[in-house]
Model the fold of this input.
Amino acid sequence: MSEPRDGHRTEGQGLGRDRRLVRDLRALGAGVAPPDLLANVLSRVRLGDAYWTLDTPVGPVFVAYNDGGISAVMRAAAVGDVAGFERAFRERHARPAHPVTRPPAALAHAVERQLGGDRRADLRFDLRGRSDFERAVLLKAREIPPGEVRPYGWIAREIGRPGAVRAVGTALGNNPVPLLIPCHRVVRSDGRVGDYAFGGAAKRAVLAAEGLDPDRLEGLARAGVCYHGSDTTHVYCFPTCAHARRITDRHRVAFRSDEEAAAAGYRPCRVCRPALAS
Ligand SMILES: [Zn+2]
Done:
């Protein structure tokens, strides 16, 4: 579908025509029009996004999208019913969102794969309005495998802003698409689970659904353990790294800092990168 040629018409005429277009498109009815038609047209004429409801480990969520990608994920428990979501969406994005009974099959499939822990899921995100820094933080969080966590400081260092730990926390707290951009996999620098865009209890629930034991994480944090190393390979990792989880009890060594690990002759894992390799 081509862009509307509305450069010369008045704003009022354009709006009226757009409303008629939307009315006509909706009148096509479910099952006649392709499921992505409404979202694409709404997005092209800047009239808003489409959304649907999805069940997740933290209850139903509303997922909004346009032809730029996923634009919002909000918990029903936080915004209430569809009217509450539409109000919250309009407040945040200054444009409306319209319900669809089902999203495009490819999009629904990609979302399911992402929620199922498949990092190769081909999902795009509409992160307009976010700063370059916020985008870098959010996209870096996508690199953390399901069932693993990294501290805020890791994101800060990985994106080349090691001093911006607090700003990383703020950017993740404002994640417009929680669950799909997995900000729940980023924890406090002392190892505690910490805050979450959906709240601390929801963060523990999502991590548990990915196979992590939040109580174990908190236990390690209380003990001051930041890293686990293997006394056979002399490599150390974040405790949730897949490589660290393969270390048997007999060969596991705990470290409270990267200095301690380095002093013991251990080098950082190249996969989870607990510190810059020297
Ligand atoms: Zn590792």
About this structure: Residues 237, 241, 243-244, 269, 271-272 surround zinc ion (CB under 6 Å). Confidence is low (pLDDT under 50) at residues 1-14. Strands lie at 49-56, 59-66, 69-75, 97-99, 150-151, 186-187, 227-230, 235-237, 252-255, 267-268. The domain at 132-221 is CATH 1.10.10.10 (Arc Repressor Mutant, subunit A).
